[in-house]
Amino acid sequence: MRRKTIAGVVLGGTLGLTLGVGAYTFIYAKGGSYMTNDPKACVNCHIMQEQYDGWLKSSHRSVATCNDCHAPADFIGKYSTKAQNGFWHSFYFTTGDYPDPIQITERNKKIANDACRKCHAEIAAMIEGPANKHSAADTTSCIRCHRNVGHLH
Amino acid sequence: MKTKATPSSSNLQRRAGGQVFKFGLAVAVAALVAVGGLALLVSIMEHKQEAKNPFFRVVELTDDTEDPAVWGKNFPLQYDAYLKTVDQERTKYGGSDALPKTPTKADPRSVVAQSKIEEDPRLKKMWAGYAFAIDFREERGHAYMLDDQTFTGRQTKPQPGTCMNCHASMYTAYKRAGDGDIVKGFEKLNPLPYAEARTNVSHPVACIDCHDSQTLALRITRPAFMEGIAALKASQGVANYVVNKDATRQEMRSYVCAQCHVEYYFKGDQKRLVYPWGKGNKVENILAYYDEVGHKDWVHADTGAPALKAQHPEFELWSQGIHARSGVACADCHMPYTRVGAHKISDHHIRSPLLNINKACQTCHRWPEEEMKARVEKIQTTTHQLRNLAMDALMDLITDLKNAKAAGVGGSELATAQEFQRKAQFYLDFVEAENSTGFHAPQEAARILGESIDFSRKGQNALRQAPPLKTAGL
């Protein structure tokens, strides 16, 4: 019985410490901010400062936040994208092994391109026409020409 | 007969051992998670610290602080990068190989760059009779500028102190020699023999050559550029241009480089350094200027042509290109902004953008690195092919001229052909000596080489017009 008590205290203490360290790190790193839509969360670390600065002066600053263009609209899509990008951003920022100027991944480029259609579906449909869409590759890229609407770099 | 299974003592021990193992595993996993959590916490804390305190002033800089190591105490990030210009790295058409060399008393260098005149002996024929035919190597990084000039084989022909203008940190030297007036110091050092002028300097280009010590703003320190850019602006209708007052910050990010990466000549007995831009800075403007003032660098040993040597006209060629037109400065590609911790600084490791494509090109050009490199190398390969054609054409003209001279051709036909040689080789050298293999302005480089070929062929044609020679028998 005494051995079990000691074991319980040690195990509980270790788990508690772990949870405590984890919780402190989460709060210190402003982890909660990542659940929000506030663009300031995206400049918690300074890698995207240029993009944030650019967005503040862009044509879309009053109508779209980072998440509006860089996350899908549906709940699951949005938070799974946030989780995935959040993990990799932390990973690369911690290891320091990333290109700078930063580069968008194919998956995120598609998300941004699809996001234009949240608001501009009508004009996109008029440009593309109804019949000639055989594959994803047939989708017209909005941001290839309109690359500066959100932020230039 | 059934017997109730009773745990044997060995079973009990095993179970207890299993519990201890599980307990130990749980503690170990929790401990590992804690270690990971703490490591992440520390990393985040470090990154947050990086965002603070960008600058500590640990020494007082003055307008006479020459030694870059002293500046480096206040600006260690920039200084560390500046020191990296010792690197020798090749690109397809540029950069230098580090070749071992046995040091001698006269030339203590243990490493030199490859010889360009050995690589392409046609250069020796182009420069016959001029010091460049003795020794001409691929340029190395800024760190080597002073040594490579002090110990080049060209020093076997007397060189003036003017050369120092672009091979050493000159601002404080000019100030000292001119009692505070850099123009007076410039005029005093130019006519000295090289070895004597050399005793006035001790560093390759340094912080103070481009930066004001108090504000760190960019500042022009070379009188020749102040005069040259004023003449260029005057030719464009802008009178009384004072570069340190009138240039924008973005212009200065090219002009500080253009203090040296330009075509020049030494004017008169005083060997005053002059940038020949009074009629504009395109190749034909510069040649027209030289023709007007009657300048020649030397007389060609084989042909007697009044020849000119073009010297690294990077600023001039860049001025004709799309990047200059788009407002892209030298520093944007050769010293791109680079992230150090939370800060962005200009990369003071000045080098070929091809060695730093992500930062140098991809801020504006969203194509893969390989694609960017392929685009540049395509331009350079085309330029290099044209350069070879122009070189062959020039060799033909020099051979014909030499033969004609030996056969006794004289008069206006010879003078015309010599004039065409002067033009052809100045145009060719304008692209050859320029350090981008045409990239700074691809179409302009192609036009210049095309004209060079044309001048060489016209020179050969001129010789054909010469009347038949009288031979001894007739």
Second-tier CATH architecture of the largest domain in chain A: Orthogonal Bundle
Average pLDDT for all residues of chain A? 87
Return the structural class of chain A: mainly alpha
Q: Rounded to an integer, what's the Rg of chain B over CA atoms? A: 31 Å
Helix content of chain B: 40-55%
Counted up, domains of chain A total 2
Oligomer: heterodimer
Sheet having the most strands of chain B: 2 strands, antiparallel
**What percentage of amino acids of chain A are in beta strands?**
under 5%
CATH topology of the largest domain in chain A: Multiheme cytochrome fold
What structural category arises from helix and sheet content of chain B? mainly alpha
Query: Any idea what the shape of chain A is?
Result: elongated
What's the Cα radius of gyration of chain A?
21 Å
Unreliable stretches covering 5 or more consecutive residues of chain A: none
* Biggest chain-to-chain interface with counts: A-B, 24 and 25 residues
Individual helix count of chain A: 5
N-to-C CA distance of chain B:
144 Å
* Low-pLDDT residue spans of chain B: none
CATH class of the largest domain in chain A: Mainly Alpha
Total helix count of chain B? Answer: 20
Order of helices and strands of chain B: HHHEEHHHHHHHHHEEHEEHHHEEHHHH
